[in-house]
C-alpha cells in the first residue's frame, strides 16, 4: 500500500523535524537553567491558576486524507515557577494538565472542490469527523520580556507534551462498512461503490479504524501577552501550536498509514495568582 522508498523518505523527514525541534528546546532549556549560576537576578515566584481556550486540530495522514480543522474546547490547570531575570529575560518553568478535544474533520469533495452529495439522499452531503478527548501534560521553558508585577509582558515558551486518550466518537451520516460507501482494495475495487467518479480521495480506511496508540507525544510552542496586577494576579492570552511526534495508527510497512500524527492550533486564556512572591521592592 506504500512503497519502501516513500516510507523511508517520510521517516527521514520526520527525524529531521525531531532533531530541529529538540535542538531549539535544548537551547532554550540551557539558557533557562543557567539561572542557577546566579548571573542574573534571583527569583522564587510561584503562581497557579486555570486556563481555557479553543483547539483547532487535524491529522497528517499519509496517504493523504483531505481535511479541514476540527474545533474543540480545552480547559485545565496551570502552574508557573519563575527562577530568574537574566539580563532582560524573565526565565520560568510552566506546567499544565489539560483536558482537550482533538481529532480530524474530513473534506469530502468532488473534482470541482464541492461537497459530495449522498447518492440515496440528495438533500445531504457526505460528512465525517472523529472527535477524541485527551488529557495533555505540557512542560515549557518560558522566556518573558517586560513587567513582572504591574503592566505588560510578552513571552515565548516551548517544551515537550504528552497526551493520554480518554475516549473517541464519530460524527458521520454514512457507514463505510456498507458496500455503497466503501471503494474496496485498490487491486480489487468494489463494483457496488457509488462514488468512484465523484470523490477526489478514495482513502477511507481511517473511517473504520479505532485509535491504536492511546499515548501521544510531541513538541508544543506558544507566544503571547501577559498583564499583571499586584493584587489581582496575572492574565494571559496565548497562541500555541502542537506538533505530534507519535502516530495514532501503526506505521510499520504492513500498516495502511505511514504517518498519522497530530497538528493542533490553540488559542488559550490563562489566569494565575501568586502563591509565593520574591520580596524585592525593586521588581516592577
Notes on the protein architecture:
The chain is mostly beta strands and 284 residues long. It is 11% helix and 54% strand. It has one helix at 4-33; strands at 41-62, 67-68, 70-86, 89-106, 117-118, 121-125, 128-146, 151-172, 215-229, 233-244, 259-276. The strands form two sheets. The chain has an eight-stranded antiparallel barrel with strand order 1-3-4-7-8-9-10-11. The mean pLDDT is 87.
User: How do the helices and strands follow one another from N- to C-terminus?
Assistant: HEEEEEEEEEEE
Cα separation of the termini: 61 Å
- Give a count of the beta strands, DSSP E runs of length 2 or more: 11
Count helical runs.
Answer: 1
Q: What is the topology, as strand order, of the major beta sheet?
A: 1-3-4-7-8-9-10-11
- Tell me the major beta sheet: 8 strands, antiparallel, barrel
- Tell me the fraction of residues in β-strands, as a range: over 45%
Shape: elongated
Write down the Rg: 23 Å
Helical proportion?
10-25%
* Helix-strand category: mainly beta
Mean pLDDT: 87
Instruction: Detail the poorly predicted runs.
Output: none
Brief rundown of the structure:
This protein has one helix at 4-33; strands spanning 41-62, 67-68, 70-86, 89-106, 117-118, 121-125, 128-146, 151-172, 215-229, 233-244, 259-276. It is mainly beta and 284 residues long.
Amino acid at each position: 500500500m506504500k512503497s519502501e522508498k516513500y516510507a523511508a523518505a517520510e521517516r527521514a523527514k520526520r527525524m529531521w523535524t525531531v532533531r530541529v525541534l529538540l535542538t531549539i528546546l535544548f537551547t532554550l532549556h540551557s539558557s533557562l537553567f543557567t539561572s542557577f549560576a546566579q548571573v542574573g537576578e534571583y527569583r522564587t515566584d510561584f503562581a497557579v491558576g486555570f486556563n481555557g481556550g479553543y483547539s483547532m486540530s487535524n491529522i497528517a495522514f499519509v496517504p493523504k486524507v483531505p481535511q479541514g480543522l476540527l474545533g474543540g474546547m480545552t480547559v485545565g490547570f496551570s502552574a508557573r515557577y519563575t527562577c530568574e531575570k537574566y539580563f532582560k529575560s524573565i526565565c520560568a518553568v510552566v506546567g499544565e494538565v489539560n483536558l482537550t478535544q482533538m481529532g480530524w474533520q474530513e473534506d469530502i469533495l468532488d473534482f470541482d472542490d464541492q461537497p459530495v452529495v449522498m447518492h440515496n439522499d440528495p438533500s445531504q452531503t457526505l460528512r465525517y469527523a472523529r472527535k477524541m478527548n485527551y488529557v495533555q501534560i505540557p512542560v515549557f521553558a518560558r522566556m518573558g520580556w517586560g513587567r513582572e508585577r504591574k503592566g505588560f509582558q510578552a513571552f515565548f515558551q516551548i517544551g515537550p507534551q504528552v497526551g493520554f486518550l480518554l475516549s473517541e466518537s464519530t460524527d458521520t451520516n454514512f457507514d463505510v462498512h456498507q458496500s455503497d460507501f466503501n471503494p474496496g482494495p485498490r487491486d480489487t475495487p468494489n463494483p457496488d461503490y457509488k462514488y468512484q467518479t465523484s470523490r477526489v480521495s478514495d482513502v477511507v480506511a481511517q473511517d473504520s479504524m479505532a485509535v491504536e496508540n492511546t499515548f501521544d507525544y510531541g513538541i508544543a510552542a506558544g507566544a503571547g501577552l501577559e498583564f499583571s496586577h499586584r493584587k489581582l494576579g496575572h492574565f494571559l492570552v496565548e497562541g500555541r501550536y502542537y506538533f505530534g511526534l507519535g502516530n495514532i495508527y501503526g506505521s510499520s510497512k504492513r500498516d495502511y498509514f505511514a504517518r498519522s500524527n497530530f497538528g493542533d492550533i490553540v488559542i488559550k486564556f490563562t489566569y494565575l495568582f501568586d502563591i509565593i512572591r520574591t520580596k524585592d521592592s525593586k521588581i516592577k
